[in-house]
Amino acid sequence: MKNRFTRKSRTERSHIPKNFKKEIFERDRYICIYCKKNLDNKNEKPTLDHLIPISNHSGLNEKTNFVTSCLSCNQKKASIPIKEFAKNINIDLKDLPITGDLIIDNTDLPKQIRQIRKELFEKIRNEELLIGGRKSQKKIEKKYRENLTNSKLGQDLKNKFPTLPGPVRTMIPEIETIVSNKNDFNLLVELAKSANTRNLIGTIITKNCNVMDTLINITKKSNDKSLVKRINFAIARFKKIQS
Ligand SMILES: [Zn+2]
Questions:
Q1: Rounded to the nearest whole angstrom, what is the distance from the C-alpha of residue 119 to the centroid of ligand 1?
Q2: Where are the domains of the chain?
Q3: Cα 227 to averaged position of ligand 1 atoms, centre (Å)
Q4: Buried b / exposed e along 188-198 (16+ C-beta atoms within 10 A)
Q5: In order along the chain (243 residues), what is the average pLDDT of each group of 10 residues?
């Protein structure tokens, strides 16, 4: 269960699966993000580039940081920071799309929330915010929670859910886009209280899925004992509320 809330191991980072590459190329429609050259032909193969280089320990191995590039641009860019490279090739950093993020891509979420998230990524790309090194993904999530909490929306959430822990509160908008009834809402709130089960929300538990069935399925199939334990705790807490 690896995604935006977890950090990948060294081996996972060095190995990029073929279908992952294809997914990024298709997302970018086989067009070099830098020079706009069409790479959907036999003459030239697309390459995968880290928008923010990972060589200086600031880039992420996440979809948001992978882009399609022609070989020439990829080589020219090497490990030059994206801010500098954009200047070199005369493009506006703002014109480079941010895709692959669960919050930015979720059109069911309030616009303001997606904007808070987008601004965070823009700042990172622009080097106005230096989030790098180990646990960079965790740092991004922390900063996002901070920015959301300090916004008007964050204040509204605080008024609406005064007793919930801060990190859980910031998950509420995402939970609301998934659930269709109060029971599922309460169950996911309990789940969100367990730090390492939060990553299930939005990736495994998505819109229109049966939340309880999905969770029970994970407990039956997963080899991750501690995850199973946390899910069972969440279900138990939920049942206690129900009774
Ligand atoms: Zn190019």
A1: 26
A2: 10-125, 163-242
A3: 43
A4: bbbbbbbeebb
A5: 45 67 93 94 90 76 90 93 93 90 93 96 89 79 95 96 94 95 95 87 90 96 93 96 87
